[in-house]
Amino acid sequence: MSRFLLSARRILPQQDFLLAAGASITTPARGKASTPMNTIVMFVPQQEAWVVERMGRFHRILDPGLNVLVPVADKIKYVQSLKEIAIDVPKQSAITSDNVTLSIDGVLYLRIIDPYRASYGVEDPEFAITQLAQTTMRSELGKMSLDKVFRERESLNVSIVDSINKASEAWGIACLRYEIRDIRLPTRVHEAMQMQVEAERRKRAAILESEGVREAEINIAEGKRKSRILASEAERQEHINKASGEAAAMIAVADARARSLHAIAKSLANADGKNAASLTLAEQYISAFKKLAKSNNTMILPSNPGDVTGFVAQALSVYNHVSNSNQQMLDSTNCQNAGTRLNPNKVEYNELNEDKNAVKMNIE
Question: At a CB cut-off of 8 Å and minimum separation 6, what does 105 contact?
């Protein structure tokens, strides 16, 4: 064997020889410190537990600080660290309830709470807890669908921790927490999920766009409605104002006409009033004949349009007839009022007869 090592040292460079020689040397597991020799007086560091055997049998656990051992009989068999330890859980495959294969790994945080059980209850605590974490992870993932794995990742971690603590209680190890670090999906499943996400985003975008169009149309319709209402109110107010103006104008015209007629009536009461009226009618007659040639409307003319004197006399006779009729009606009204004042008993008698006849009709 020494000859083989010497020949290898000559053939290989020094660095490669060190690598080749180190390949056969097993590195100590994490958390396992080399057991110290019994020097009678021992100093135990903080957060460490030294398990002492006396003559091959468990004797006691050394506390941090100064400790005295019996030489030859006592031996430090195990050194356990009481600090929190982080262990990488290797990547593994698991199948969900909807038959999707996942590649998942994580980190496990644990602490030794009973050095005696951790030393004598299991051969390799780190290996045992890692295998337990992997099997528990597969079991928990098999109960969930793919979508539920992503939604309830925290509850999955809690379930794995509870399952590990139930099994590792006999080993004196407490699992503090478990964190899923990475989840890898098959390529086709990953592409399908990407398409689903894109479709969902397009759906949301279409919904938002349609809602925006709807809101815009509602706003436009609301604006048109308000504008029409305002326009109708403005038009109504305009018609009201216009009607008020026309009514005021008509009242003013009627007032002016009444005043002019009152003035004309006073003028006609004078001695020369009829002559003035005859002159006015003659002038209007002549001015009307002047406009006949300027318009092409069909009109009815008197048989002798040149007889102005006859036309004026005819107009005056119509005026006198209307005046006499009005005077007769006024005289008859005055007489009736006078008769009523003279015979009040007769009026009351007539009213009583009318009431009596009405009562009879109601009885029948």
Answer: 88, 89, 90, 91, 92, 180, 181, 182
